[in-house]
Each structure stands twice: as structure tokens, then as C-alpha cells.
């Protein structure tokens, strides 16, 4: 609390020198808030919890549901029955945007609207710091990555106004959400089978992408939906080379960058594509929880070449939006600060090399049913895989055994498995991104926030399964 004459009045209650000293601390905090509002970047050092709560309390006081003597005669007035729920949301209950646009200012929620705009600036800065300096604009969408991709596909189609564009070229990646996003948006996926290399790595077939565009006709294709973050031994799609093909034929490239923000290699590749005059990226989408360590529920849409596309995505969102994923990310980014964010990114890169090195050492020095699949290591530096030299039933038990020892995350992929993802689309070898991978294998990930102790504990467990 600070107002004109505060120092003078407070000095009648306690000693003036104590008031003056206290106000210096208050003014320092107010200066931090002013810098945040004006510069709209991650603070160099993270804010304390008290500083964040103070800021949120101030913004909450700007929302009408917290006005003194407020009279609400509408169907949506920010009323919250449970005091526990109200506290959980820091008294911010109106949500964000308006029914016609995600980022529109909400007249009943000036404070929440400011938080939204600030969060969009902060996450854009975080993506720049991660290696994509050419990103120009980002928005946080309160939906999962797959649903956000569907929103982007629909936005691209609406902006082109070419109803004959019914197809999305999709280099195979055995994750259901992306295929479902294409289907949800009303398009038909054209699956491009991958190349299985001699070193065990799997990558998108660029020649097949171009051949399929020629075969189907660019006038009938909305975009290529490429993927940068994937389970080894699949490697990230080469978005630069795919972007060159898209540029050549005048179609878009939407990138599923689900957990790619934490990888310097991936972000620099996206950055290179944005900067090129001969390649293209319409937008790239990333998960909030996988990259920024917040609860599940949000995604970030970013663009560097066509920032108006971000506005189109915002305008296609139907209805008032939940504030929760935005608030979670806003608090987290303020808490991390620039130094904390860069430290987490650097630590993850170091731990990936440590994890691989320790795995190599353990497998080399002991007889093991596992072998490191080395082919994907240089291009996929988030995930890596170990082949499993066991019969199918025994290989499957490896994952079960790890799970029941409180180890989550590893995935056992069995060769020859089949799965129907959509009613009209089935895959052989599902999980391995190709029809005929020669081994059963287990995938591991070194994701942001992992600790060295977790790696050591996993290595100990690996000897027991």
C-alpha cells in the first residue's frame, strides 16, 4: 500500500526513519513491477513468491469480481462458491479474452487481461533465449498441444479461403494426438513413411514429401505438419529442408514442437528456417508443461515470419478462455527469471550427455540385454533408445518392472505391433515410427528439470529388470 501522504501519516504511528527505510524496500519492489510492465521481458533474476503474490493481488483488485460493492446482473460475474477454489486462482475468476477472440481485453477483467498480455511477451522472450531469436510473436492457448495444432490448421485454412485444400502432409510420427488434430480440424492426413537408416535412426523421407505434393497437387494441400520433438530412434524432422519444399510449392509448414523448446539444436533449426528467404514456417506449437514445468493444460503458438497468423489463431478461438494455464505459466516465468531459465536449459544439455555416457559405460562393462542405439544421438538430444535383446513377452515386462519400482517415463516399443489410430488409418510397427524396426526397444528422455540423482537411480534400477 502506497499513496500520496503515506509516509507522513505512517510517521505519526511509528518512527519516521523506520517508515522511510521500509518505503525504500517498497519502492524497489514497485520499480521491479514497473520494469516488468515496460520492458515486457523475463526479469534477470526471478521474483520471490511474496513479490509474485503481491503483484497478483494488485492485478486481481482490477477485476470487477473483486470490486467493493460490485453489482453483477449477468450470467457470468466471476462468482466462485468455494473459497478454496477462489484462493487457488488468486481471486482471478473471469478468464481471458471475449467470445470472439482469445487475446481481446475482457472489460470485466482488466487485471487478468494485463497478465495475459504480459505472459505472451514473457514466453516469447523465453523462446528467444532458448535459441530462436527470430521469433516475433507468441500466444499462450489454454488447450493441449494437439488441440492447439487443430486450431492452427483451421486458422491457416480460413486465411487461405481455398476449400479444395483438404490434405495435410504428415511425416509419420507414432503419437496419436497429431493425427487426431488433423482429423479434428477437418482435414485428411497423407502419411509419409520414414526412412530407416543403417545406424538404427529413423527420419522423414524428404523425397517422398516432395513426390507426394507433386502427385496430389499443391493446390489441394494445406500444409506439411512436421515434428521436431519425438521419441528416439526417430530424429526431429529437418524443418529447414521441409520448409524449402513448402516454399517451392507455396504451401504452409506447421511445426509440432511439443517439447522442443528445451533443445538448442531444435530451436536453432527453427530460427534458421524463419530467417531464410527460401524456406518457410507458418507457425510452431509447443507444450507449456513439457518445456516450462507447469501443470498440463496449455500450449504456445509462435511465429517469426508472419505474425499476423498469430492474430488469426487468436480470433478463431471459440468462447471465453480459462485463465489457469496462463496464470501458471506467468507465475513460473517470473519465478525462474532469465538467469533461472537459461540455467535450466544449460543443465539439461549437460545431463543429457552425462546420461548417455553413463549408459554407454554401464552397457560396455557388463553383459546386458540392452544396447544403445547410437544413430539418433547427434540429432535427437532429448530422447534416446536402448534395444532389448529379449523375447516379446520378456521385453514388455521391462517397462512394467520399471513402473512398479516408481520409475515413470520409459516406453517399451515392441516390433511388429499394430494399431488403428483413426477409423480409416492403421499402422504396422506402431510406436517405432516405421513398419519393420528390427528390435524391441525402450525409449528414455532427459527432459528439462531432470536431476542427476534421478539418472543415477534409474541406472541402478536398470540392472534389476
Give an overview in words.
The chain is an alpha/beta fold and 465 residues long. It has 3 domains: 6-95, Arc Repressor Mutant, subunit A; 114-330, Type I PLP-dependent aspartate aminotransferase-like (Major domain) (Aspartate Aminotransferase, domain 2, 3-Layer(aba) Sandwich), CATH 3.40.640; 342-462, Alpha-Beta Complex (Aspartate Aminotransferase, domain 1). Helix content is 44%, strand content 15%. It has a 7-stranded mixed β-sheet, with helices on both faces. A 4-stranded antiparallel β-sheet has the order 10-11-15-12, with helices on one face. It has a two-stranded antiparallel ribbon with strand order 4-5. Helix 3 (49-60) packs across helix 5 and helix 8 (206-216) runs parallel beside helix 9 (239-249). The longest helix is centred in the C-terminal third of the chain and has 42 residues, at 324-365. The N and C termini lie far apart (59 Å). 44% of the residues are buried.
Amino acid at each position: 500500500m502506497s499513496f500520496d501522504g503515506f509516509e507522513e501519516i505512517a510517521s505519526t504511528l511509528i518512527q519516521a526513519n523506520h517508515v522511510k527505510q521500509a518505503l525504500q524496500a517498497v519502492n524497489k519492489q514497485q520499480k521491479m513491477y514497473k520494469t516488468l510492465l515496460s520492458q515486457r521481458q523475463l526479469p534477470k533474476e526471478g521474483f520471490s513468491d511474496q513479490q509474485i503474490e503481491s503483484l497478483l493481488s494488485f492485478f486481481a483488485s482490477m477485476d470487477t469480481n473483486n470490486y467493493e460493492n460490485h453489482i453483477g446482473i449477468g450470467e457470468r460475474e466471476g462468482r466462485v462458491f468455494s473459497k478454496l477454489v477462489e484462493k487457488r486462482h488468486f481471486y482471478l475468476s473471469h478468464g481471458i479474452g471475449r467470445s470472439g477472440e482469445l487475446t481481446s481485453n475482457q472489460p470485466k477483467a482488466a487485471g487478468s487481461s494485463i497478465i495475459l498480455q504480459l505472459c505472451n511477451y514473457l514466453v516469447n522472450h523465453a523462446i528467444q533465449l532458448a535459441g530462436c531469436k527470430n521469433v516475433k510473436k507468441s500466444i499462450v492457448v489454454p488447450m493441449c498441444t494437439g488441440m492447439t495444432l487443430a486450431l492452427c490448421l483451421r486458422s491457416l485454412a480460413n486465411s487461405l479461403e481455398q476449400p479444395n485444400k483438404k490434405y495435410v502432409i504428415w511425416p509419420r510420427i507414432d503419437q496419436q494426438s497429431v493425427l487426431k488434430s488433423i482429423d479434428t480440424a477437418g482435414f485428411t492426413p497423407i502419411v509419409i513413411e520414414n526412412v530407416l537408416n543403417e545406424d538404427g535412426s529413423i527420419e522423414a523421407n524428404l523425397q517422398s514429401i516432395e513426390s507426394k505434393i507433386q502427385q496430389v497437387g499443391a493446390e489441394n494441400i494445406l500444409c506439411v505438419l512436421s515434428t521436431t520433438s519425438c521419441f528416439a530412434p526417430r530424429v526431429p524432422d529437418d524443418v529447414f529442408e521441409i520448409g524449402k519444399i513448402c516454399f517451392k510449392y507455396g504451401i504452409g509448414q506447421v511445426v509440432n514442437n511439443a517439447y522442443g523448446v528445451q533443445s538448442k539444436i531444435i530451436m536453432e533449426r527453427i530460427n534458421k528456417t524463419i530467417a531464410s528467404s527460401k524456406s518457410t514456417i507458418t507457425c510452431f506449437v509447443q507444450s507449456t508443461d513439457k518445456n516450462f514445468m507447469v501443470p498440463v493444460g496449455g500450449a504456445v503458438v509462435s511465429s517469426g515470419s508472419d505474425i499476423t497468423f498469430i492474430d488469426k489463431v487468436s480470433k478463431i478461438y471459440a468462447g471465453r478462455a480459462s485463465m489457469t494455464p496462463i496464470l501458471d505459466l506467468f507465475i513460473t516465468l517470473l519465478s525462474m527469471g532469465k538467469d533461472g531459465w537459461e540455467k535450466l536449459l544449460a543443465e539439461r544439455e549437460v545431463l543429457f550427455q552425462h546420461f548417455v555416457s553413463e549408459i554407454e559405460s554401464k552397457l560396455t562393462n557388463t553383459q546386458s540385454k540392452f544396447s544403445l542405439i547410437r544413430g539418433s544421438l547427434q540429432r535427437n538430444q532429448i530422447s534416446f533408445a536402448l534395444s532389448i535383446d529379449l523375447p516379446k513377452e520378456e521385453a514388455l515386462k521391462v517397462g512394467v518392472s520399471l513402473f512398479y519400482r516408481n520409475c515413470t517415463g520409459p516406453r517399451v516399443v515392441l516390433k511388429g505391433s499394430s494399431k488403428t489410430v483413426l477409423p480409416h488409418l492403421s499402422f504396422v510397427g506402431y510406436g517405432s515410427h516405421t513398419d519393420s524396426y528390427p528390435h524391441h526397444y525402450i525409449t528414455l528422455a532427459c527432459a528439462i528439470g531432470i536431476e542427476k540423482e534421478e539418472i543415477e537411480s534409474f541406472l541402478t534400477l536398470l540392472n534389476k529388470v
